[in-house]
Known about the structure:
Helices cover 18% and strands 39% of the residues. It is α+β, with helices and mostly antiparallel strands.
Amino acid sequence: xxxxxxxxxxxxxxxxxxxxxxxxxxxxxxxxxxxxxxxxxxxxxxxxxxxxxxxxxxxxxxxxxxxxxxxxxxxxxxxxxxxxxxxxxxxxxxxxxxxxxxxxxxxxxxxxxxxxxxxxxxxxxxxxxxxxxxxxxxxxxxxxxxxxxxxxxxxxxxxxxxxxxxxxxxxxxxxxxxxxxxxxxxxxxxxxxxxxxxxxxxxxxxxxxxxxxxxxxxxxxxxxxxxxxxxxxxxxxxxxxxxxxxxxxxxxxxxxxxxxxxxxxxxxxxxxxxxxxxxxxxxxxxxxxxxxxxxxxxxxxxxxxxxxxxxxxxxxxxxxxxxxxxxxxxxxxxxxxxxxxxxxxxxxxxxxxxxxxxxxxxxxxxxxxxxxxxxxxxxxxxxxxxxxxxxxxxxxxxxxxxxxxxxxxxxxxxxxxxxxxxxxxxxxxxxxxxxxxxxxxxxxxxxxxxxxxxxxxxxxxxxxxxxxxxxxxxxxxxxxxxxxxxxxxxxxxxxxxxxxxxxxxxxxxxxxxxxxxxxxxxxxxxxxxxxxxxxxxxxxxxxxxxxxxxxxxxxxxxxxxxxxxxxxxxxxxxxxxxxxxxxxxxxxxxxxxxxxxxxxxxxxxxxxxxxxxxxxxxxxxxxxxxxxxxxxxxxxxxxxxxxxxxxxxxxxxxxxxxxxxxxxxxxxxxxxxxxxxxxxxxxxxxxxxxxxxxxxxxxxxxxxxxxxxxxxxxxxxxxxxxxxxxxxxxxxxxxxxxxxxxxxxxxxxxxxxxxxxxxxxxxxxxxxxxxxxxxxxxxxxxxxxxxxxxxxxxxxxxxxxxxxxxxxxxxxxxxxxxxxxxxxxxxxxxxxxxxxxxxxxxxxxxxxxxxxxxxxxxxxxxxxxxxxxxxxxxxxxxxxxxxxxxxxxxxxxxxxxxxxxxxxxxxxxxxxxxxxxxxxxxxxxxxxxxxxxxxxxxxxxxxxxxxxxxxxxxxxxxxxxxxxxxxxxxxxxxxxxxxxxxxxxxxxxxxxxxxxxxxxxxxxxxxxxxxxxx
Length: 1014
């Protein structure tokens, strides 16, 4: 039966008691899909927000997204992996009942209770005094025990216990009730009292009654204890299998939930009961437990998994809630506050909680639903609806256009496929047909048809609304564009060129300020005073396609889009209007999607109205499988910030549990680091938003949406703090969140001592390099000094042997001339001429020495040209033929190398000319693949090489060898008496000379200035 009160609950943390179970959001996790290893026996929630699930194969911890198997410490095993009952105590202890004993988990330690070893734990409760009560089954006798401060006290004095405790419950008055096979005990306070109410499976399901007393489950229903007698308060359906509810739950809103074996969930609320079972989507009809979490969600444990029921902002009514069939037409709210909506079989009318179905024939309806047969009522699958000024309900369908009056359908015009039906201020009824055009039906039943091409459109209108101020109609067309029509003529029109959103116009609305709103495929456009502003995904809408818009009592705007229902607050609208309808203004809407109960679809039906507002402020709209309703005044709001936990950290595939190791030290050289975190808001875990920050690495918070892992690569060794915060489905943030301190250890070469040693080692190496360089520079300076000294010695020797001797001879001749001038003056001119020739010879010899020190021909002509010039200069003094040959491709060479080779050639040629008595001297220059070879050979008399080296005062051979070594070349001298001489110098082309050309130039200039100039 449909709910009598369709009000949405204004509470944030409870299920709306006016709704059937099928109207809550339902989600299943099935063990056959890999959720757990088997069916779930018990559910409990600890203070940290986790949901704990006890199965026949162990314990699981569930955060709303992942069910993770829980493992006790290696040296602290559970009595059994078959979990039979769970209890979360107020002091943070998790009590774990198993098939073979009891354990408790707190602060990382697992405690055992030997008094209950071998017993199956069937019930666990904590009373108002903090005492834990344990019921157990055993053979031949069970046990009832109380545990306080670790001390276990069992009650053997309790007679008639049989095999054990089947149920435990403390009522609102503080009475402790114990159920077993033979009946019921009120155990405390005061002396125990026995109630002989025998049940086939014992007294299992117990909860509080409305008066705070006791309700128990029996095969006939829920019975209430009144004056020591049990009376049937909530009977089970007559056709239901005879079985008591093994678990009864009273939620915080007063609704009762029962888990009945093989039947499913029974739900009593506001004087009625509904059933939810496998055909409705329940994971399994064999229920083991029912539980309500801190956010008001109801959880059911079954043999096939876990089911969750939660309230929704948008409530849906479909055939499952007794509508006649799937909805596929318009929805209106009449003046009498009744809601009308079309369906495949007829009309549905909801008035004061009573549903009436109007059809042309009798159809099956649910209990409590009224049915009215109206002969001739057309098929309403594609019907448009409206109500005229006289209060009559009009419809336009394929077969006829007419109205309802006194439970009769009065046809007044032929039908067709119509998208809109409206009455204008003059009492005319207008119908927009796809094929027939725009049809006007006057109050006198006159029919006027206006084709679409008269309005400048080949496409039909899909939306229509009368203008209450200026008269006429506004039309919106299937291919886009709007037009204002009056007296059959288009008065004005707008299209995408004018700023209107593009695409099909699905809905038109005029607000209380006279602005026209057009919902289109390209967004929502607002027309006022001839100006158009458009909202789309570019300025804040979740998506472009808008099916309809409506304004609620708070003047906030609601939009149905292809991606969900959107609410734009009044403050956003006012800010947009204050901005001069700025098209670039960004809105920040609240979006509702399928997780909020919105059945979204890409294409919406053509028949209008799509949405209607009832006098109580609720918004009614149709969708593909029923009608939805939202109460803007009582939107659900989750005020609880979600607890945040960092579960584990994984470094290079090795996992560190942050529970047992809150400050892990990670090994060095970690490449891949993954941090798993979660937040415990179980109402809509998929809508939780996270942000995190790694202090010491991240500069700012990283917003990651619903992702529950953080990834880092190649973190350098240091101490880090990872912080994470989360917001629930209503956007309430837990800013404190959770944090984790960890450290990445340093490799030996990343440690401070190693780095200090490296610095010291580098300093020592630099010192050694400095010392080596200093030694090299000292050796170079010494070599340069020796070279300079040898050069000075040679120059002094040459000057002494040539220039000074010549000048000494000139001086002696001048003395002779001065003596002869007195005795034989006639001989003086000839003597002066001879002195003149001697001076000229001295000058020529000095210039030759200067050329030998510095060759300008190398700079101008290169090595080959300098060798040829050398031969030309020596021509007048040479007695042998001399020629120069070059082989190979000449390549650029270091100037120092060319200078030394030229001097070697000069020295060798002079020696051959002076001493060898040769007929021919050959100078050969060969540019080989990897070396440069200079060869000077003659056909003279030769000499003994060893004897030549031993002669003192003659430095030619030694100088040539030193020059060759200086340019890192080799000097090979081949000679023997009577066999001529060959000198071969081979230099690698990659060699760079260490000679200092500037020093040579300086010495040459000094010698030139010492000898004078002409």
